[in-house]
Design a protein that fits this description.
275 residues; mainly beta; OB fold (Dihydrolipoamide Acetyltransferase, E2P); Ribosomal protein L2, domain 3
Amino acid sequence: MALKIYKPTTPGRRFGSVVDYSLLTKKKPEKSLTRQLKKTGGRNSHGHITVRHHGGGAKRLYRQIDFKRRKDNIPAKVAALEYDPNRTAFIALLHYQDGAKSYIIAPDGLKVGETVMSGEKAEVAPGHYLPLSHIPVGTEISCLEIRPGKGAQLLRSAGSYGIVKAIEESKVYVKLASGEVRIFSPRARAMVGRVSNPDWHNVNLGKAGRKRWLGIRPTVRGVAQHPDSHPHGGGEGRSGIGMPSPKTPWGKKTLGKKTRKKKKYSDKIIIQRRK
């Protein structure tokens, strides 16, 4: 998968780039696996903005992804590779031998017509979903469960992957995309291979309008605001923040202040912190 760069016919086209979608084989999603996606525009039930910089954007259908993949030992044929507007990775449509259909996050290199499987009997090949205890050390993995049976929660975005570092009787050490090393249960499952669409990280939107299509509204610097709107605001002409430590719009310390809980549940399973 590569990037597509257009001729600079307009200022927005000059530096913009898009992912080349020529590998995708299906344009319209499987109707039975979609549902309506309701937007909030960042507002609560009173109509007040509670999340800033949200709103607008293109209308989307939600594709129901099977993150648990509990149809063990039933081969599934990859019927199509599709674009999903709700995530950065591509998705694959599976047709199981028993007639069921489902979407999964597509691993890099997966092709239409290939067969994938989940469960302990699955082979170690891209797209197969099996327990960590059955994956060899050094293998690249993605779509990783935190708790066995809960479904994939980690390593789901475009190009992400972790590496199985060591396997013991009661725990498996996995190095995550951030560089953090964590302990997981041997029964926790993961997909073999890295996530598809790795070039997504190199896309240049090119213009502000593309950001608006994604449902992201503008962010205004605090120093450019009125003093009633932000602690950094006010002053004559261009001015600095004018205070010892930067603040959020609500007066809390930010930019460097640690916000992680002192007794977080995952502290005991983190072996090496991210850099």
